[in-house]
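ok trying again, last paste got cut off:
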Amino acid sequence: MCGRFALYSDYPKLLASLKLPLAEPEQPLAQRYNVPPGTFITAVRRADDEAPLEMTALWWGYRPHWAGEKPPQPINATVEKVATSTYFRGAFAHHRCLVPADGWFEWVLIDGKKQPHFLCREDREPLWLAGIWAKRADGTPGCAIITEPARGVVGEVHSRMPLALDAESLEPWLDPHLTDRETIRHVVHHLDAHLITHWPVSIRVNRPTNDAADLIEPAR
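nice, full thing came through this time. structure:
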């Protein structure tokens, strides 16, 4: 799954990684080393089919306006069901987004205690996580990050992982004219799992209120 991540790369680095036309956000990006659900997170999307790409804030919690205010607001959507589930399929076809991240956290149970690990690219380049978004009942856009079965070394710490896309898939993923799931499946591909690494970090990351650069340093 993906329930906590870090984003500390600045706008120029993200723009160089994305390689798509993108206006600079109105507010500077804050460096965040422990991003929890139920907060606004940075994402790249089109507000509508004809709108330019924008880097904006989306609420991390998906609940489309047509569902009202009582249904759950999941933070993840599985790749196995996102294109077919009634709750997600409209957003998958028309409202896809990318969530930039420098890495994410997972917890491993060791001797009855949960040890957090930080997972990221070996070259420390940003990750682009596939997501979907929809307007919530209050009018704010909310999103979910798509997950897939764990691949490569990620399987050492968790059974699932966020769907990180390779560089060639970023543009088609954001293309509003691509709506057919089979077409999307053939042109969008996940990042090579061999590029991912991980290491144990401080249990201080367990508290979402802790947010500092040393949270991603190897545990001593």
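cool. Helices lie at 11-18, 89-94, 170-173, 181-187. The chain has a mean pLDDT of 95.
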